[in-house]
Amino acid sequence: MYEGAPKIETEKVTPETIIESGESFEKFNTIFRRIKKGTEENNIRIEKFNNFSPQMKEALSCVAKIFKDAKVTYPWAIHGSSALVLEGETTKKPKDIDLAFGLPDYEKVLEQIKKLEQTGKISDLKIEKMCNFKGNENGCIKIFAKIKTGEGEKDFIELEAFAQNVDPKQKKNGVTNPGLERTGINIYDMQKENETLEVNYSDRLECEKFYCLLAYWEAQEYRIDYKSIRKNQGKDKKENTSEIKNKFTQRLQNLISLIKRKEKEEFQKKFKNRKVAPEDELDFEHISDKNIDQLIEQFIKHNKRNMELEAADNGENRIDPIKLIKNQFDEFVNKRNKKNFPRNEGYINKKQRENNHNKKLNREEIIDTLTEESQNSMEKITVLHYNLDELIEDCEKDEKKCEPEKETILINEIVDELREIETIYQEYLNTINYSDNRDFIPFISINAMLEFVKPTLARAIELLIKNTIK
Amino acid sequence: MKNYKKNRENRLKVHENIKKIGYDKVLKMLQDKKFPNPEKLARELLEDPKENFL
Fold first, then answer.
1. I need a labelling partner for A62 at 20 to 30 A (CA). Which of A79, A101, A138, A236 fits?
2. Residue B31 C-alpha, separation from nearest chain A C-alpha, in angstroms
3. What pTM, to 2 d.p., does this model score?
4. Which ipTM score applies to this complex?
């Protein structure tokens, strides 16, 4: 057994009786549904699955074979972007494979992966003990590997497999814990060299839960993390930013994608027998106020446990993501309702125009672009903040080290950098079209960046004024 | 572990300091440094930080 892995007494976990009913059955608190052609929804799922790239299919078959040969006892399921493609209204293509499985199956799964490592099918194998959001080890183990999908150097798909707790007597230790919590898994059959393989995917509800839970914690990234800056002092400054993962708004966009898919399916069912194509009647690109309300409702529904934990643990010190979404949407709507408010081009349109010479970006690609841009800005600001702190600390420790002129030069550089970021995001904010809800997610992201700049800017301005007075 | 309490305290401390400096000096500095919309930014830096982002 992997050193440090918690020992789980598997015999104490009693599997529920397998209830087979048509194409679905229940086992270990999990409802499995075999996805077969027939219903409109499943036809679309299968079409999307079949449209995965040959490389992705190759990697999926490899993963399915690992779990088949390992003869795992507990459920396993792929989540993340790959599941979103099957369950959401998205044009994204799956790029990697993230999955969760039962910790008692860890050794069996690792053994199969190591066998494939010897054949060269798998490389870059890494094992990591995972921590919870408080930084304490939580018993979950991550297996990282690259699955070879061709002969070229870049022909591989990354796999992140999380071995998670399934013992009901122990705490949940992952964003999703199939086999412990009530879970829904969709099974896709795959043929590979005369062998039928089963690829397990989180169902729509599970995807919804997954993104709501992740986003809840990721909202905290919109604040300079003083401790992680300090912790890495003396190390490469780039390492100070390693903990920044600005994905909050991207997750919200994913949740919107799930809502839109559900809405589309309901619409198609309702108008199944009509001759007019439903797509001609409803613009599925449009995001209604109701969609945003649904997003907030989902967020609250899936984060009840987090909210309770937070209330019991000085929660007032964290950013409240629910308040954040609600307040931001109120602000968005207020601006929309203001008389004579300029109807701007819209952030989405601006980004599309900027990229027109290459290709027209869809709304998800635009959110991705903004996420990447603001991630870089946040990293830059974090390093600047670190530099500032270091300077002040050195001076406080030893007055001989105080060099006001040198300080002023550095602070000026910092202020210049911050002005550049502030200017860019103010420009972005000016393009927001408040009558188009597709701009709501970029609106949160831009506002969050502008807020992120403020503490560092305030600190730099304060020091600059003090130095000028000296 | 993210030190939420310390982060909040630091942010409030920075905010208190800039408030003591006062609007006029902050505005002048932002104008000198050619920040866009300096009046609005100076007001925002001196206002209480937005609660939902704090």
1. A138
2. 11
3. 0.86
4. 0.91
